[in-house]
Each structure stands twice: as C-alpha cells, then as structure tokens.
Amino acid sequence: MADYHFVYKDVEGASTQWDDIQRKLGNLPPKPPAFKPPSFTPAQEESSLPKDKSWIDDKTEEELEELQDDPDLDDDRFLEEYRKKRLAEIREEAKIARFGSVISITGSDFVREVSQAPPDVWVVVILYKEGIPECALLMQCLEELATRYSSTKFVKIISTDCIPNYPDRNLPTLLVYNNGAVKANYVGLYSFGRRCTPEGVALVLCQSDPVLNDGQSGGDMSRKAVLEGVRKRLIEKVVKDHEDDDNDGSSSD
User: Fold this and answer.
1) Burial letters for 221-249: b for 16+ Cβ neighbours within 10 Å, e otherwise?
2) Positions in the chain whose pLDDT score sits under 70
C-alpha cells in the first residue's frame, strides 16, 4: 500500500511541512520574515507642541501675524517680543530680495510693471533688440547691477514693443522711472563712457538721484550715500584689476 504524505498551507504565505524539510536540506531559500506593519504614531497636535523659540522659527509671516491675538503669548513677554523680532526679520529679508534680476516685460506689462511701481521703487528700463552687440554689453552690466542692487527694479523690453518704429540706431536706450514719471533717459552706449562697465553704468545712473538700492541701508538712501558706495566698488575693482595685471606680468617673467 502506497505511503502518502499530506502537506498543507494553513494560511496564505505560511510554510508547509514539505517546505520546512526542503529548507533544512538546502533546496529552498530561507523563509522570508513575516510581514509586520509599522507601529502607528499619532501626529502631535499643534496645541500640544512646546511654545518656544523653535516653535516661533517654524512659523510663516502669515502665521506670525495670526499669533498676535494668541492668549498664551500675552502671558509670555519673551515669546511675544521674539515673535515681533522674527516677523520683522522675515519682512526685511523679503524686502532685500525684492527683485534681483533683469525682468523681461512686454508692451502690455509696461504700465503695471513700470508706471505703477510703488513710489519707493526706482525702475530702470532697457530698450533693446537681440543681435545688437551694444545691447548685449549693456545688458550684461545691468544683470550684474540687478543682482547687487536687488531693491531697484530692472526690466528689459524689445524697443519696438515699447515704442513703435523706435530706430535701432538709438539702441540701447535706458529709461529711469520713479513714482510713475521718467526721471532720466540715456540713448546709446556712449552715454556710459568709453568702456561700459557695471561700475560706470552705476555712476551715471546715480548722477542726480539715488536710483540704486541694495536693500541693506533702508529705503531712504541719499544720492551721496549711493555714490559713495558705487565709487568704493569702482576703486576696489580698479585695484583688483591692477593686482591681476601685476600677477600676470610676474608669472610671465
């Protein structure tokens, strides 16, 4: 009489007696570990979080404003003062990083982006066309100034998109706006000297008004203060260029 051996699976994925024997003989790979779901950890409620400096640091500007009426902060003078300090820091950081690049606009954007800019914002507009070397050179200078003076708004617009039939011989043209009015205009690259450099363009822009603002010295920088800063950068650049020339001469000897 045949000797039958019965094997079974009690639940899906469970090992049978036959599987166990085969694993002992090395004919099957080891049994995988049983699935164990991760333990559940409930999220900590906002109200149960400790209210300290790190709690304030994690808040956005809107959330910090809402905390003005928080009764817990009314009883904690330190946290309330720190909330105000953090709110001021966030607003100052946003002010400093206001622009920081040359923004491309179209004719339909001009009134909104330039004429209707806030009164405390100076706007420098370059009228240009692609393929004109003089435009590319001035644009390169403006891109550096836009990074350096991030509270001054720099925009670029195709000349004929701004002024229909504007002659290419007048390009590049720079317009300076403040409080909805044109404060200065510069036609052609020669307006910025024999060598067009960011420092030279900065000096020309600030001849009559404090056009450039880095956001670090407040919004009421005087023309004199801006010019002093520009001249300092110009002197530093001249000295650096001179030192680089000396080093190149020494290495070639």
Assistant:
1) beeeebbebbeeebeeeeeeeeeeeeeee
2) 1-16, 40-52, 61, 69, 71-76, 92-97, 215-227, 229-231, 233-253
Sort strands 122-128 and 153-158 into parallel, antiparallel or unpaired.
parallel
- Measured CA to CA, the distance from residue 170 to residue 149 in angstroms comes to 26
- What's the Rg (C-alpha) of the chain? 34
3-state SS assignment for residue 182: strand
Measured at the alpha carbon of residue 54, what is the angle toward residues 48 and 59, in degrees to the nearest 5?
A: 80
Structure tokens at 231: 């001249």
CB 86 within 8 A of CB 57: yes
Give the pLDDT confidence score for residue 11 in this predicted structure.
Answer: 47
The answer to whether residues 245 and 207 touch, using CB atoms and an 8 Å cutoff, is: no
Helix-strand-coil percent breakdown of the chain, rounded to 5?
Answer: 50, 10, 40
Chain-centroid distance, C-alpha 45: 33
Which of 205, 197, 195 minimizes the C-alpha distance to 226? 205
- Quickly list H helices, the chain: 17-24, 53-57, 61-66, 71-74, 77-96, 110, 133-148, 159-162, 198-205, 223-252
Quote the pTM value: 0.58
